[in-house]
Amino acid sequence: MTTTTGPTTVTGSVGTAHTRVDGLDKVTGAARYAGEIPFTDLAHGWLVLSTIARGRVRSVDAEPVLAMPGVLTVLHHGNAPRVDIDYEGMLGRPDPLIGVFQHDQVPFSGWPVALVVAETSEQAREAAEALVVHYDQEPHDIEFSHGRPGAYTPDTDGMRVEKGDLEAELAASAHVVDAEYTTPEEHHSPMEPHAATARWEGGRLDLVDSNQGSTWIAGELAKVFSLDPASVRVRSEHVGGAFGSKGLRVHQVCAAMAATVLDRPVRVVLTRRQMFSLVGYRSPTTQRVRLGAEPDGRLRAFDHQGQSLTSTIYEFVEASAGFGRPMYAADAHRSVNRVVRLDVPTPTYMRAPGEAPGSFALESALDELAEKCGMDPIALRARNEPAVGPVSGLPFSSRNLTACFDEGARRFGWAGRDPRPRTRREGRWLIGTGTAAATFPVLVGPATAAVTAEADGTFAVRITAADVGTGARTALTLIAADALEVAPDRVKVHIADSDFGPAMIAGGSMGTRSWGWAVTGAARELREKLVPGGDIPAEGITARFDTGALLGTLSQKERHSYGAQFAEVAVDVATGEVRVRRMLGIFAAGRIINPLTARSQLVGGMTWGLSMALHEEAVRDRASGAPVGPDLAGYHVAAHADVPHIEADWVDDPDPEDPVGIKGIGEIGIVGAAAAIANAVWHATGVRHRNLPIRPDRVIEDGRLDGAVSEAGGSGA
Ligand code: MOS
């Protein structure tokens, strides 16, 4: 740690463990989240969601509800202000869901049909639950299965990649794996539900929100309400988790609508149950993987076909088939994503979109291939290390996957592992170990930052970054401190205010890299402006930096982070319960800014992977089209008792092109983790689990569980 007093010139904060600069505020409750910031004259909106999965709203019986205590208004398609959703936003055209109350159509169960606004949250809820809505119901279709009619490959970038003669290479292969894998519908489940308060303040729409990018939300809201972007201000000081779900959602639009209609501040908070249909989720996937290899494991044929679902109103594709494109060399490479439109809510980006489910299928298939080739799974991956991008032919900026496996194998104790399954038993537990590779793209987005030298000798950084719980505010403090060559306690970082100007969102694992670049640039410009020993005026001296033009000069390369995941599991032969005993992840993910929070983030991602492997599964009722048990009781996320000792660490891997060496660590922690666990379950039991989650009923249903361990194998305790 750097000293808190002492020399005016200090370097080396980046890379040292630093507790969160907002940690004390968070644990003492001083940090206010979007749903708890007080406003004078605040009104509360409560959403009413459709109970049918397809049809139209015939009528909304608002009158009786308007007579209830405290009720101020009921907004619905018959009276709501018109908004514009016919625009090109940052992520393309918006999901029509954003245009709430604009028509009477109901495209899925849980579609917003009304907003009840009242003096208190309790009155709004009471009235919302009493509101009677009449529907004309139509039959719905939510049936998702592999190769079902209607599945298509979108005509957009990256949906289909083909190189070489796949069928010929498969036919010529000594070993072939051809298997189908499935992953269920999964939800982001951030601890903090979505919440926004909107008001008109000095002629501007002012929104206090919980989001992944305040300039982004401000820009989209300006378009939705046809406002000058300068007359919208969005702030998002603290965020209790996002994972891809906290973009522009209906609650911000509803709050702004109601604030406009009532001309007073209006807050809309989503309930956990409402989040299951309003904030996106990860589509279920079915994936078919075909791998063909030489006897020595060298891949001749690589084929990954993924299918996901989307709503009838918006095309979002969970592109699971892209995972292997930069990963493994093969003579023929094919990867295709398909999607089918059903009467379900629109899925969205969720931590490691594509890579999370894609790595489960492909890294399981590689384990199956290793078994067929009689090879160690790590050796199989090493055999297929590409010299250049297997599909693109582009050079890698850096590629340290092998270093991750070397370090991981050493620390996990992989050497001497009996490759045969079902060779270890301890009482009623079958024990196994598994591994899998991880990768995630390294990207960067434009950002602007301002750094001010204050008269009191401190420095203020202003950037519209978002700290979604990752520790980004702290990371930026360390980055700024190093760029300014001062101790971090002389730097105050202000984030998440759209008035600070445009900046990349906290998404795509690009936040810290994108913001760090801008902050470093602004700090350097400031140092050039400062005269040694010169006076600083009361208003300070400010330098600004915009990375926009710089990013265009980056050469064409394959830029990725990598990781090696290891897991040890114990499987109860009587109950089918799988317990993960330990996990280790070693990552090559650029320069690590703050080891303390980076480790937490990676361990968090790996915990998600455990949760994905064993627990998470949203079930939709065929009859109603609605989710079953849409809460944290019905949808089990790994809890403390499910999570064993998890270790995450990294190898040296600074990005040569980034001014700080950053790659990004937001998403890679989950990638490959579920496959490592599934591979360990196979190693323990001899049974492949190709459908997630690996529930006890799926494990015992196999029937082969409670027998002796393999005859040639070792004995247990
Ligand atoms: Mo993340 S799924 O890129 O917000």
From TrEMBL:
Q: Does the keyword Membrane apply?
A: no
Q: Give the source's domain of life in one word.
A: Bacteria
Q: Which InterPro entries match?
A: Ald_Oxase/Xan_DH_a/b (IPR000674), Ald_Oxase/Xan_DH_a/b_sf (IPR036856), Ald_Oxase/xanthine_DH-like (IPR016208), AldOxase/xan_DH_MoCoBD1 (IPR008274), AldOxase/xan_DH_MoCoBD2 (IPR046867), AldOxase/xan_DH_Mopterin-bd_sf (IPR037165)
- Secreted: is it a keyword of this entry? no
Q: Per UniProt, which keywords does this protein have?
A: Molybdenum, Oxidoreductase
Ranges of residues in domain Aldehyde oxidase/xanthine dehydrogenase a/b hammerhead:
28-139
Q: Which residues cross the membrane?
A: none
Q: What is this protein called?
A: Xanthine dehydrogenase family protein molybdopterin-binding subunit
Taxonomic source organism: Streptomyces huasconensis
